[in-house]
User: Fold these one by one.
Assistant:
Number 1:
Amino acid sequence: MSEAHVPDSALSMDSIVVAAGRTHGPGDPVNPPIVPTSIYLPGGAHAYAREHNPTWGALEDAIGAMETATCTAFASGIAAISAILDLVPHGGIVVAPTHPYSGTGARLAELEAGGSIVVRRVAMDDPVAIAEATPGAALVWLESPTNPLLEVCDISAACDAAHAAGALVAVDNTFATVFGQHALNLGADICMQSATKYIGGHSDLLLGVATTRSHELAQQLHTRRIMMGATPGVLEAWLALRGLRTMALRVRRCNESAHELAKRLETHPQVERVLYPLLPSHPQHALAAKHMPMGGAVVSFIVRGNATTAQAACDRVELITQATSLGGVETTMERRARHALEHPDTPESLVRLSVGIEDVDDLWNDLNQALTG
Ligand SMILES: *Cc1c(COP(=O)(O)O)cnc(C)c1O
């Protein structure tokens, strides 16, 4: 089969997600095939599929083209996170969010308890604290907006501080996606996403991706994937690429609906507070408006009353699915504090809503009836 075609980076990302990761030779299939194999015949670049598989290759080409970077795909988002944290030398310092994604928090705590790394925890919405924590660090791990408190980080300021101190910066860009926040263009060395969420987009796979413009970091991530055996399944990679084709449409639609629902929720008598980066009531509204062309499709809101009231609202949804996770075509919501791993700073009655692509009025009617009871 001919070489993968890398589209001209002058194209918009809306076109790249459709056009990239395909081959363009005479008679080639329009879509890359699913190649289930563990071994290759001699004479090619690879012998064993822990190193490479053409189905992941197509997904990596497409995501790499979006960001003008090299993409490494992993078996899950947490596998990508673990690989990046593995780049920190033994005993190295990691600056990390006070309120990270729960899996990241658990992994950091595990590495810290075992003495492999030292963690300095800082609030993502406090650029001064981030800059002050950075000298001596090997890695600055940023997440923005955070899950589920939706704190917004000044990624460019944090990158400037980190680079002045010689630290690497990795951003967990899962919530905003590259459409909503271009972490590499804002200065990050590595952009990580759980492709389980908006890239896959259909709640039917687990996969993670890490992109970088540094040849050396790309090599290191590739080696970590081999050493950890964190290789993606070929069917998952194919489904993720299939999801990527419609990502521009889906992300735009669910971001617009999320913004609209956030505004309506703010006026609902049963809602005490809404957290959404593009609402004027958000503490980093101006920064979010500058960094994020879209506000994301996750809205967190605090239900008036207590955990029982909030749980009852979640139990009453009909169109919306009460489930964890986010980024699917279907709208999901849950009371985050029902999870044992959730950070104690998450209010008991906080509900996290992941807005999908359904009709926005249908979603509003469902939320309204669930909240009103
Ligand atoms: C889901 C998620 C992850 C972990 O990804 P998996 O694919 O579930 O392993 C990491 N970061 C954020 C922000 C997430 O939402």
Number 2:
Amino acid sequence: MGTETNHSPRQSFIPLCVPEIRGNELNYIKEGLDTNWVSTAGPHVTRFEEALARFVGARFAVATCNGTAALHISLLVSGVSQGDEVIVPALSFVASANTVRYLGAYPVFVDVDKDFWQIDVPKMREFIRNGCRWHNQCLINNTTGRKITAVMPVHLLGHPVDMDPLYQIAREYGLQVIEDASEALGAKYKGIKIGRDSQIAGFSFNGNKLITTGGGGMIVTNREDWATRARYLTTQAKEASKELVHNEIGYNYRLPNLLAAMGLGQLEQIESYLTNKKNIAAKYTQAFKQCRGIRVPREADWADSISWLYAIMLDEATFGMDSRELLDKLRQRNIETRPMWYPLHRLKSYEDCYSYKVENVENIYRQALCLPSSVGLTESDQDRVIETILELSDRTNAQDGP
Ligand SMILES: *Cc1c(COP(=O)(O)O)cnc(C)c1O
């Protein structure tokens, strides 16, 4: 009990990405508690939906219990059906692919590009030209014989996908576009916020996302019929009648009012969060861009990335250690980092799904490391991350000799 330790104080823990609570979150949650609006109906849900739609610039927003549910329902209202195939990048969080499987549809994995790590749109076109045929007004995957009906671009780490050519391909082949914008709230494509011009997009408010409700998500669309249907399906397909009738199989996917209240408080501060993320990214880039063996992230000329997570790539030969070794060394120094997700097409659950020339994902998976990127990361904590990495790199480079 209260034992004093004599050895030097352990340096404080620097987490990868944690929430920043400093606004009206508690006030709004208390409003909900005081008025008994705690569950999935309530004024804060509507207010949060309206505020988010306004922020993004889209007409409609439907709050869900998490981002995965938002994507699941977005696929459903887009008309993706059992046995269809959906093009998904091989580098993403597993939820992107899982939601396709929830419908009994199958992901088809496409590579990401080397520079920005986003779905490789020219390669996707190449796949459609070389690996598919147009038959009875449908795009058929020659290898599997299945219909490809949709594509799910993922704006990875908050950097937007090149959407114009992607929508062009989608129009040519009648594909629905369901954007996984979980990591990209506030990101802009050619000056326009992700979600404003989307057919339909899903956002996430998980604990490590730009803004959080603990768990939560949002479907954003400009189509009123889709928004209405999304609201219906996420509310157990409850019919608008006095009788408790449910004519379809729905889902219990709505966001509780208390969490929406928290989201409102978070959203009020989003501009300062975005500024912080930008400053964090700029400082890392400044520190590492000349460092041997480190490649800093790039931004495409169409992109205004929110740098949700800042990820470097390590060249083992020149840096002197690989990404996992650096991860371990940083962990020993109480700094949390994280590798990129395991390539989706190599996961057990997806081994049998089709993938087209997935090459770049492997290298990114091996070399990438996400650095502490919390909105509230202090200057001195970021300095410690930078100095520790530079020091480790000096040490290994010195061992190499001249
Ligand atoms: C966070 C995330 C999701 C899912 O969000 P949850 O709210 O955790 O369900 C989906 N896709 C990507 C790319 C994500 O980063």
Number 3:
Amino acid sequence: MVTHAFNYFLLLSQGYLSFAQNVPTACIALQAQLGSQKVQSSGPGYETGATGAWNLANSQIRPGCIVCPQESVDVQVAMKTIYEFDSRYSVQAGGHSAMIGWDNTQDGVLILFSQMTNISYDAESDTITMEPGIRWGEAVAALEPFGVAPVGGRQSDVSTGLLLGGGLSWLSPAHGFAADSFKSLDVVLVNGTLVTATADNEHADLFRALKGGGSRFGIVTSYKLYPVHTGTNSEKSWISASIMYPNSSAEAVLNATARYVQNVQDPNAVILVTFLSLITAGIVEPLVSVNAFYNISGSNTSSLPSTIFGDFLSIPSINTTITSPVSYIEISNTLPPGTNTGSGSFYGASAIAATQDVSTFAGSGGYEFTVLAFTPVLSPQIQAGVARGGNAIDPPPEDCNWCPVPAAGGQEGNCYFWNSMFLVFGIYIELAILLLTNIQ
Ligand SMILES: Cc1cc2nc3c(=O)[nH]c(=O)nc-3n(C[C@H](O)[C@H](O)[C@H](O)COP(=O)(O)OP(=O)(O)OC[C@H]3O[C@@H](n4cnc5c(N)ncnc54)[C@H](O)[C@@H]3O)c2cc1C
Ligand SMILES: *[C@@H]1O[C@H](CO)[C@@H](O)[C@H](O)[C@H]1NC(C)=O
Ligand SMILES: *[C@@H]1O[C@H](CO)[C@@H](O)[C@H](O)[C@H]1NC(C)=O
Ligand SMILES: *[C@@H]1O[C@H](CO)[C@@H](O)[C@H](O)[C@H]1NC(C)=O
Ligand SMILES: *[C@@H]1O[C@H](CO)[C@@H](O)[C@H](O)[C@H]1NC(C)=O
Ligand SMILES: *[C@@H]1O[C@H](CO)[C@@H](O)[C@H](O)[C@H]1NC(C)=O
Ligand SMILES: *[C@@H]1O[C@H](CO)[C@@H](O)[C@H](O)[C@H]1NC(C)=O
Ligand SMILES: *[C@@H]1O[C@H](CO)[C@@H](O)[C@H](O)[C@H]1NC(C)=O
């Protein structure tokens, strides 16, 4: 066992050495093919590109060169060359990966999508076409005049890497994970070949893998997406609630969240529950925040339905702000952009018991700020994804008799997926816990 691990380590380190030696050659070859505008290894453009990642740990890594493609063919050239030279490389869209080394590469080739930010909507085919470098705030603003929006992120400065990991959106309860809205994808394979992957062509396996399976299967250069008809800014069809609770309400909010996950089936409702700790000179100040939205366009409701939100509204709060009616673009601007960009953050995947006091965890490491956020994923969301052909992250129907997937003969109930993250100037931990309940 030990010998095996040691051999593996040797292989890794030899691989690393050969990569490191080859990188400058790959960069020279890339610059010869694509020009010094698109391929830079120094100068202001290089500095901006090299240091743009959200996590300080990734913005301090120095790539050997940065390729800024302007179209798919540039990515093809880059991958073909990287493949031939066996170079280390990394890909960056919006740079919000918290994972160290996932969107930058020491001495390798960084493919940075900052020049590929086009977005358009074709009404005839009802399709959004998006390049990978666009951020969600820009995407929502560009499409608002058409009354449509992508199923995208909840913070404006995050970008399309979110789609490849599944993606949780304010629109998800009714429309599925962000990746469930894929119509077709242009993908550059590792050897530079460009393919278009759809649900039913010869690249259907690649298509499915990219629906939540992450970034290991190819480089997406264009996303074609089913839009959501959210309406323009003049169409105010939502109620918005922002509630801030004192720490003394924390346990009640946690309980209300658990009941929400067990009972709510209404795809018009969406919540984000966030446990924050501000840590100043060792003093921990815990707070709890709830953002809730309700789509009222199909109902006669002019206030938040108490059957869904009553628990949250009755818990003693510091501040409850209810705004009605609001448009989708107003909802999508609720959370502030740029949160903690340039902070050193850690990511870890481990389970933290719901009963564990977050403040003791946060207080022990000299951190400055933690966030633990819960996003319930209810069965209508899973069903919306199934209706679009399924994805790589849904619970496998054959493994359960609890699945809310009618086609699998499963029983009704909510699968719930709590996506939580600790976001700190010192630390960033994201948890993805699949909890199953409400089996009838
Ligand atoms: C402040 C903040 C808010 C967030 N909010 C949400 C949220 O509301 N919902 C949610 O689901 N998640 C959210 N996330 C998580 C977010 O979805 C992921 O961090 C996501 O990876 C970010 O995508 P990006 O393009 O900004 O980052 P990047 O770091 O550029 O990309 C992420 C990963 O995808 C790879 N990648 C990017 N583009 C491509 C491509 N075209 N082809 C192949 N691989 C590619 C990169 O190499 C990297 O490994 C949030 C994260 C932060 C930091
Ligand atoms: C992106 O938009 C620009 C400006 O409209 C255009 O010149 C370019 O061809 C577009 N790129 C793609 C790949 O459509
Ligand atoms: C690249 O890989 C794909 C998938 O394996 C293969 O079909 C294609 O022929 C390869 N292209 C080249 C130029 O080798
Ligand atoms: C916050 O609330 C939790 C749960 O009620 C409690 O255990 C903890 O001591 C509180 N923390 C502070 C700093 O008051
Ligand atoms: C939360 O739920 C637990 C378990 O049901 C219960 O023991 C506790 O009293 C509840 N706390 C609050 C504040 O509602
Ligand atoms: C809001 O609800 C109406 C009625 O159910 C529905 O037609 C519409 O698509 C929903 N809007 C969004 C953005 O999901
Ligand atoms: C809204 O109210 C009207 C009048 O009371 C009723 O006819 C209609 O069915 C209601 N619509 C919904 C979606 O509840
Ligand atoms: C309550 O929230 C609103 C909106 O976020 C804000 O403008 C207001 O200052 C807050 N009030 C208090 C007392 O915190």
